[in-house]
Structure formats: C-alpha cells, structure tokens
Write a structure and sequence with these properties.
two-stranded antiparallel sheet, mainly alpha, 67% helix
Amino acid sequence: MSSRRSVAASAAAVAVAGGVAAAGSHGGVALGGVPVFALCVALAFVLQWAAFVPAWIWRTERYFDLAGSATFLTLVLVAVSARGAPDARALAIAAMVAIWAVRLGAFLFARIRRQGSDRRFDRIKHDAARFFLTWTLQGLWVSLTLSAALGAVTAAAAVPLGWPAAAGIALWGAGFIVEVAADAQKGRFRREAANSGRFIATGLWARCRHPNYLGEILLWTGVALTALPALDGWRYVTLVSPVFVWLLLTRVSGIPLLEAQADRKWGADPAYRAYKARTPVLVPRIGRLPGGAGR
C-alpha cells in the first residue's frame, strides 16, 4: 500500500469512528458539554497515536497488542467514572470488558515476548505511513468493538437489569471460557517438543478450527445483549459491535489469514486435509467425535 493510500485509509478510519461516536453520543452523559462517548472514541485514537511514536522510533511492534488492551481498559474506566453513580448494568459491562482486556492483554504480551516479534509487522514497521495506519486501525477496532458497551455505560438514564442482561452475561461467560480454554489448550500443545511443526486438532480444536475466535464473537455478542435495553434512538448504531467483531475475524484479518497460512504449511499433509474436511471452521461440531481425531 502506498503512503498516500495509507494516509487516506487512516482518515477513513477516523471518519467511520467519528460517525459511530456521533450516534453513540445521543442521549448520553457529558463532561463540560462534551459527550463522554465521543470523548472516549477520541481518546482511543490519541492513545494509539501516542504509542505509535516510540514504536516508530524503535521500529517495534512488541507493545502493539498490549496498547490495544490497555486502551479498552482505560476507556471503560473513563466512561464509568464520568457516569458519576453508575448503575448495575454499567458496572457489569465494565467488569466484563475489564476482565477480558486484562486477560487478553497479558496473554498476547506474554506470547510476543516468547516469540520476540510478530512477523505481520516485518515490512510494515519500516514504512511510517503504513505503520501509523496499523495504530489508527487499532483505534478503530477499539472504538467499534467497545461501542455497544460505551453506549450503555454512558447512557443518561438507568434501566433496571432484566433477562437480556442475564442472558448477555451468561453468553459473555460462555464465550470467555471458550476463548481462555482454547488459548490454554493451544499453548500446552505448542510447549510439547513432540508437537513442533504440527497442527492442533484436539480438545476444542477438534470441535472447530478456530474456537478462540468463536469465544471472542460470543463474548462481545453477550456484551451487546447486556447493553441493549439501555440503548435507544441513534445509539442503536452501537450494536455494530458484535457484527464488526464477526466480520473482522471471519472475513478480514482473522480466519482468512490463518487458514491461508495453515494451507501453505500443512496443505500437502493428508492428516491435515482430513482434519480440515471433518472439522467446521467456526460453528463447533456437537456430539461424539470420530476416532483418531487430529494430531
């Protein structure tokens, strides 16, 4: 991507986030006349751009994922604090986001410390415009993913918890457990010397090929469902959150990239081809698995 296109893409990302911020700010609390929702979205980008400066100076991506997770945590804390006297829904949503952000941030930071680098950035981090774009896109990712949560937390009127919140919290819990379990299973698999260069097809990974992403989609859908009763009017736009997560993971940077990488690495392996043929991509296989599933 050329520098001109990178700059244009960065501007487009800010514009999209600005549109969601405008919608999410309707009927929300404000600080000094500035809607807290819009303030949080602006802060998401400011924090990424601030982190970009040392990352560019040292040409490192080591703190990229950690900065993203820290931004989620910062924004939800700012939103709850600005609310003054947050209701039960706001506190529940803030807790769900905070638990997820701390766990994922620690997991990703530990992973890149072990690996030393993220090869996705090998070329990008030496091109200022493209590297800046990745940090800007992370600001967009935070803003859109967190939008339903922010819409509910910054709502001016409190709405009592009901069955949607109970169902949303349960769905978030299920998704969080699936994601953590999938990451733990893959981590244990990779730490065993005998599995060097092999693909995982056991545990949750025998049920579907990307259970960690399934968990991610489920938990953010749970957050949106918990937030739903507190939304109205233009703030319904913030329900783009789980849709965005699903599109990002299934159509853009998640599954398509990993599937292509796996095909290049194991595409000639009959065992991998058999695993791929019998194992769904995302929707898990339910029931008894066939014998000898995976390696």
